[in-house]
Every structure is written in structure tokens, then in C-alpha cells.
Write a structure and sequence with these properties.
Blueprint (H helix, E strand, L loop, with lengths): L5 H9 L7 H13 L1 H8 L5 E2 L2 E5 L9 H18 L6 E6 L5 H14 L3 E5 L5 H10 L4 E5 L8 E8 L9 H10 L15 E4 L1 H15 L5 H6 L2 E4 L9 H8 L4 E3 L25 H10 L3 E5 L6 E6 L5 E4 L1 H18 L7 E6 L5 H9 L2 E5 L3 H10 L4 E7 L3 E4 L8 H17 L4 H12 L1 E10 L2 H17 L4 E2 L2 E8 L4 E4 L4 E4 L8 E5 L4 E6 L5 E10 L5 H15 L1
Parallel strand pairs: 3-4, 3-5, 4-7, 8-9, 8-10, 13-14, 13-15
Antiparallel strand pairs: 1-2, 2-6, 5-6, 10-11, 11-12, 15-16, 17-24, 18-19, 19-20, 19-22, 20-21, 22-23, 23-24
Helix pairs in contact: 4-5, 4-7, 6-8, 8-10, 8-15, 10-15, 12-13, 12-16
Length: about 575
């Protein structure tokens, strides 16, 4: 018999009161009788906000996504909004993706907001996450919500909160809202919707977003070059099908092959194991079509259309997937170089990335003489930079996990505009008889040769969370002195906010918000990061190696493999 903590049982009993509907209570009773382990995992904690909002499995309980947990969140957020904006008519925008229950849960959220005398702009059907970020500012809203779990498995859903600037919540505001939510009981949720407080939105916002995407993602590419570029696009059963084909066509790209077998939005994602463009297998169908049709570029986006994967032809003419760091370096270099060529590069321009992304981006910024800013994982930190430094002009920024943001009209990673930008670069390079792969080679010859690798270790449930915590504690209490035969010369602990220079034994304070991340730097220039995911049950290890000379991809790969062996 599985032991269930008394505190967990107390939570369970709360859900067996008349506050909760009969179906929910019946499901819980079935779990008590037949699935005590599942019951424990469903109730042992409250779902928490992570780097991408609140994300989790759907089901009954405090640790699941359901009408009650989202209702409580929305009630707490409604209370917070009224306190933050007294005597104002508060407005929120709500979007949802293709996942199971997303539309229904979006309606629940809309009902609670409207019941609390908040004006709701609800998208009539599924929309891309970046369009929600855009809509918040376009409609002059105080807040925005999108129901999505990005590229997580089908049983997941989530709830991302955006503020007035169109960016996601950041500390301490998220903590203040969480405190407001935690002060409530479930019987305090007002589900009684006021229909006169709701308005469905669609084409007007779609058109404005498309126009803005084309304006920010276009860079004087010739009409002929656009026509000549052969594109294969897959939405991986997600929301991007509502916007990316439209934007590409309006921008002049007419030679676009949409992967029809993956074009229909479907929360089961039936043709892929994971709808994540970071996974090579997710783009296989599109790449196969590209090989058959002799296409120049493949674009694939995740379900909520904020990440994109890119495949282009390598020197042997075969389609090759660019990793997120490579794609980011290409886009940032192109943006800055275009500004320079047009004599538009300013002293107050800046670009941004994250602490676990490639160091090449900082070198590109230095090369062009612009400011480089670095933040924690998650685009909310890049959006915060845009907000916190109004005297600076944001050019673009990205992270290793296939996200990119062009300009600041959207304050989150945006696969719509980034797709157009990638096609612009590819079209201009094709016109010169080259590919994006060639373009990356040119950048590497100037900046150095970098190679990165991500290792994700999945640990499910309460036991898994404890194992991840133990791993991080071991790394902190027994830090490695060498990795793959190379001396560790610096350790950055973002939870302790310290950077320790090993040779000099000097400690500096890190001026970045606290986070459970460890970074190790070795004497040969390698960088290794350990970071538990804020939205998924896994711990991630990011490895970056480099060489000033072109020693070949195989040699760089060998360095990565040596580091990997040294870690485990």
C-alpha cells in the first residue's frame, strides 16, 4: 500500500466538498480506490509559475491544469488587477492554441475575468502566442493570457500571463500575484460570466499583426529572389497555420509547400512523437518533401508558434537542421550587418540572449559595437530588458531553444516574424549562389567556430523532482575541479548570485535575478550549464565548445562527447 502524506489527503478532502462538481469528485474517488500514486502526484503541491508561465498535466487536483486551478489563478489575477489599476476599466486579451481543452479552458478564464467586471477580448479561434503578445498592446490591455503548453506532450496544457508591455510576468510581480492566488480558497472563485463584458476578436487583430510582422521581418529582398526561394513549411499540427502562410504570401513568397499531413491543428500531434522543432524527428516529414522537391529551406514551428526549426542545404547539398544557437547567430549577424550597410547602426542599439546560449552572440555584438545584454532563460527577461532600458533600441534577440524576437512590436519569442526573417536571409543568399549554411560559415570565420549540445534528463513526478534537487545540490556541494581533463576556472551560481574565479579565488556578485542555474567555464573556453526546467519535469545540461580556428565539426563534437562523459 502506497503511503499518502496527511497534508496531501487534506488537499484531497477539500476537493470532495460541494464547491467542486460531481464529475470531479467521482474522478477523485476512483483515484483513491485505484490509483493512490496518481492521486499523490495530482495533489501534493500547487502548480507553480516557471520560465514560461504555469504548465502541467491536465486532470483533477492542485497539481493539474483544470477549470478550478485556472479559475483560482484568474480570480487572484483579477483581484490583483483591480488593486493595481483602481478606478480604471480593466481590459484583458485571451488566446488559446490547438491543445485538448484549450478552447474550453480559455472560456473558463474569460468567464472569471468578466464576472470580476473586467473587459475581455477573446480570440474566436486558435491563434499564435506572439499574436496574443501583440494584441495586448494593440488593444491597450492591462493583461493577456494564452492557454498553451508549447511543445509539451498532448496531456499537458498551460497558462501564460502577459502584462501591459506585452511581456510575460517577471519577479517580483509574479510573486505578488501568486501570493494573491494563494490567499484564496476555491469557493471564492466567481465563475458567473457577464456576457456584456466579453468581445470576440479575430480579423482586425490578425490583419494588424500580419502587417507588423511583414514590416519588421522584411529587408529589401528583391521580388525575384523571393519567387525563386523554395520553402517547405510545417505547422506540426499547431497554430502557425493561421498566420505564417498568410504572412509569407503577403511578403512575396509564393513558392511555399505546406506539409498538408501536418497542417490540420490537432492536440494529439498524430504524425510526430513530439511537436518540438528542437527534435530532428519532428521535421523529418518536411525534410523528406524538401529533398523530393529540391527546396532551399524548411521551416517548422511548435504548437503555439513561438519557436521555429530551420533546415537548409549543407555543402554536400543535403538538408541539415540548424540548431537554435546557429539560427540565432545568423539572424543577429544579418540584422546588425544590414543596419551597418544602410548606415543605420546606432550607438544605442542592443541585442540580447540568455546565459545558457552560445557565447558567439556576445562576440557578434562586440564586432558591430553594440550593447549586448544577457538574462536568465526565458523571453520574459528579454522583454524586461526592452522595458527597463527605453533609452536603448532593441534590434533582436534569441535563445538556444529555437526562439527569436525581431524588434519590440512583439514582446516574446515570435516564430511568425522570425520565419519571414529566415526566408529573407535565405533568399538573399540564394541570389548570390549561396545558402544559410554558407552564411554561417562566413560568420564563424570572423567570430570563431562554436558548437553547442543540449542534454535533457527527464524525471517524472514528485520522486523525479526530488532527484533533480539532489543532483543540483551535489553539483553545488561538490563542484568539479576538472571537466573532460580541463581545469574549471570559473563557477557561476545564479541561486547564490556569485561568480567565483578559481585561480584568484575572487568572488563577484551576479547582477541577475536568482535562479537555480550553475555554469562552469573551463580553461579551453568551454562552457557547461546545469539548469532544472521551470516548466517541464527535467534537468538540462548545456554544453558549448569553441575554437578560433576551423578544426572541423568532428573535432568539436569530440570535445562535446568528452565533456558529456565527464559529467555523468
Amino acid at each position: 500500500m502506497i503511503y499518502i502524506d496527511p497534508k496531501t489527503l487534506e488537499r484531497v478532502n477539500q476537493w470532495l466538498t460541494p464547491t467542486f462538481d460531481a464529475t470531479t469528485q467521482h474522478t477523485i474517488k476512483e483515484m483513491i480506490a485505484n490509483d493512490p500514486e496518481g492521486l499523490e502526484d495530482s495533489f501534493y503541491k500547487n502548480l507553480a509559475f516557471g520560465t514560461g508561465g504555469m504548465r502541467g498535466m491536465m486532470g483533477v487536483g492542485d497539481n493539474r491544469i483544470n477549470r478550478y486551478t485556472l479559475g483560482k489563478n484568474t480570480q487572484g489575477l483579477s483581484n490583483y488587477l483591480h488593486k493595481s489599476f483602481p478606478n480604471e476599466k480593466i481590459k484583458v486579451a485571451i488566446a488559446f492554441d490547438c491543445r485538448h481543452n484549450s478552447k474550453e479552458l480559455a472560456q473558463v478564464v474569460a468567464d472569471v475575468f468578466s464576472a470580476n467586471d473586467i473587459k475581455v477580448y477573446l480570440f474566436s479561434d486558435l491563434r499564435a502566442t506572439p499574436e496574443l503578445s501583440f494584441a495586448v498592446r494593440h488593444l491597450n490591455c492591462h493583461c493577456g493570457i494564452v492557454l498553451t503548453a508549447s511543445h509539451n506532450p498532448p496531456e499537458y496544457n498551460g497558462y501564460k500571463v502577459y502584462w501591459q508591455d506585452g511581456g510575460q510576468l517577471v519577479p517580483p510581480q509574479d510573486e505578488e500575484i501568486i501570493a494573491e492566488i494563494n490567499s484564496l480558497s476555491y469557493d471564492q472563485i466567481n465563475f458567473d460570466a457577464l456576457q456584456n463584458n466579453m468581445e470576440l476578436i479575430d480579423e482586425e487583430v490578425d490583419k494588424a499583426f500580419a502587417i507588423a510582422s511583414i514590416k519588421n521581418g522584411s529587408f529589401n529582398t528583391s521580388k525575384q529572389a523571393k519567387k525563386d526561394l523554395k520553402i517547405v513549411f510545417t505547422s506540426l499540427h499547431g497554430t502557425s497555420i493561421t498566420m505564417i502562410p498568410r504572412v509569407l504570401e503577403a511578403a512575396g513568397y509564393t513558392n511555399v509547400h505546406v506539409v498538408e499531413a501536418q497542417a490540420k491543428p490537432d492536440g494529439d500531434f498524430p504524425t510526430v512523437k513530439s511537436p518540438n522543432p528542437e527534435e530532428p524527428e519532428a521535421l523529418k516529414m518536411a525534410i523528406d518533401i524538401a529533398e523530393e522537391t529540391n527546396a532551399d529551406i524548411v521551416i517548422g514551428t511548435d504548437p503555439d508558434c513561438d519557436r521555429l526549426g530551420i533546415a537548409v542545404r549543407n555543402k554536400e547539398g543535403k538538408m541539415t537542421i540548424l540548431n537554435g544557437n546557429q539560427a540565432m547567430a545568423i539572424k543577429i549577424y544579418f540584422l546588425l550587418n544590414t543596419l551597418k550597410e544602410n548606415n543605420q547602426l546606432k550607438n544605442n542599439h542592443f541585442i540580447a540572449s540568455t546565459i545558457v546560449s552560445t557565447p558567439m552572440v556576445a562576440k557578434i555584438a562586440k564586432h558591430f559595437g553594440v550593447t549586448y545584454m544577457e538574462g536568465l532563460t526565458g523571453f520574459k527577461w528579454i522583454a524586461k530588458m526592452v522595458k527597463d532600458f527605453p533609452e536603448l533600441e532593441f534590434v533582436g534577440g534569441g535563445e538556444e531553444s529555437f526562439g527569436f524576437m525581431v524588434g519590440d512590436f512583439v514582446r516574446d519569442k515570435d516564430a511568425v516574424t522570425a520565419t519571414l526573417l529566415a526566408c529573407e536571409i535565405a533568399a538573399q543568399e540564394k541570389e548570390k549562389g549561396k545558402t544559410l549554411f554558407d552564411y554561417l560559415g562566413t560568420i564563424s570565420a570572423e567570430m570563431g567556430y562554436y558548437k553547442e549540445h543540449l542534454i535533457s534528463v527527464v524525471k517524472q513526478g514528485k520522486k523525479g523532482a526530488e532527484e533533480i534537487a539532489t543532483m543540483m545540490e551535489n553539483f553545488r556541494s561538490n563542484p568539479p575541479q576538472t571537466i573532460a581533463g580541463q581545469k574549471v576556472i570559473k563557477i557561476e551560481d545564479y541561486q547564490a548570485s556569485t561568480a567565483i574565479d578559481i585561480p584568484t579565488k575572487q568572488t563577484k556578485k551576479l547582477d541577475i535575478p536568482k535562479s537555480n542555474v550553475l555554469l562552469y567555464y573551463t580553461e579551453d573556453g568551454s562552457k557547461i550549464a546545469a539548469r532544472p526546467s521551470g516548466t517541464e519535469p527535467k534537468i538540462k545540461f548545456y554544453i558549448s565548445v569553441s575554437s578560433s580556428e576551423n578544426i572541423g565539426d568532428e573535432r568539436l563534437q569530440q570535445k562535446i562527447e568528452q565533456i558529456q562523459k565527464g559529467l555523468f
